[in-house]
Amino acid sequence: MKIRLEPHRCVGAGQCVWVAPQVFDQNEQDGTVRLLIEAPPAELHDFVREAARVCPARVIQIEEETDS
Ligand code: SF4
Questions:
Q1: Does 20 contact ligand 1 (Cβ within 6 A)?
Q2: 56 contact partners, CB below 8 Å, separation of at least 6
Q3: pTM tops 0.90, yes or no
Q4: Domains held by the chain: number
Q5: 33 pocket-lining for ligand 1 (C-beta < 6 Å)
């Protein structure tokens, strides 16, 4: 799995950080999303998928791969 963000669309709602704090953080200045891990380990995949699902601005794009 690889994560790509479209941060210009981020509204700083913070749901991604609440769901997957190991992977996402928020910019201290404006609250926009920061990606901590571009290719998270398998045990975090479900949390990343949930973060993408709950993001109100569809900022989080996931590339699924069969080998991870
Ligand atoms: S949930 Fe979406 S809109 Fe909210 S901070 Fe995360 S990426 Fe930005």
A1: no
A2: 11, 13, 15
A3: yes
A4: 1
A5: yes
